[in-house]
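USER: If only I could read backbone structure tokens as easily as an amino acid sequence. It would mean a lot if you studied the pair and described how this chain folds. Here is the record:
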Amino acid sequence: MIKYIYADALDAFPKLRDSMFRDRAHQFKERLKWDVSVCENGFETDEYDAMNPLYMIYEMPDGTHGGSMRNLPTTGDTMINDHFSNLTGGVQFSSPLIWETTRFCLSPNVGKLASRVGAAVCLAGCEAGIRWALDSSVGVFDARMVHIYKRLGWEPEILGTSGKGKEAISAGLWALDEASKASICSKSGIAPTEVEAWFDTSFPVAGTLDTMVA
């Protein structure tokens, strides 16, 4: 299942927290060879993890991380504005209706569940956008993600691309709406009611956009 957890609440879920940051180190440092920092505990974190982002985390039956992504409102500091404005023609994103999504990660232990876990994480982001009346999500992705978004029927509007082939990096804008949710549910076989239950379990008391993402 998916859990929505703000960074300042991660300590209540140590097994999920530690396995997520270690899986990020495996994916981004070891497998993809990105220039990221890994601490002595084997965690991959950066300055944006210190900004109280909202994590959408797929919890495996044993309580460990299966997949996740990190979300921040674009009204504050974001990776796309701070480091990737070359992909947007210099356009800066700053809107209470647009979130930035980063660090999409799948655990190396998910095996045959990879497609379901990836779809679930994307659905979690879409559901949050619908519940809080957001418009879209912006982010930077590499070429390996293109087939994943296409398979889910949730392809982004491409804002700009640098590089070619497997080395290409793009900035994209994803719609957060019922049509997108329906498409991902249909392609993945995950029922809309299951997606809604994830959100309701994490946020049993309905909150406004201001209280949830400020």
About this structure: Residues 2-213 form a domain with the Aminopeptidase fold (CATH 3.40.630.30).
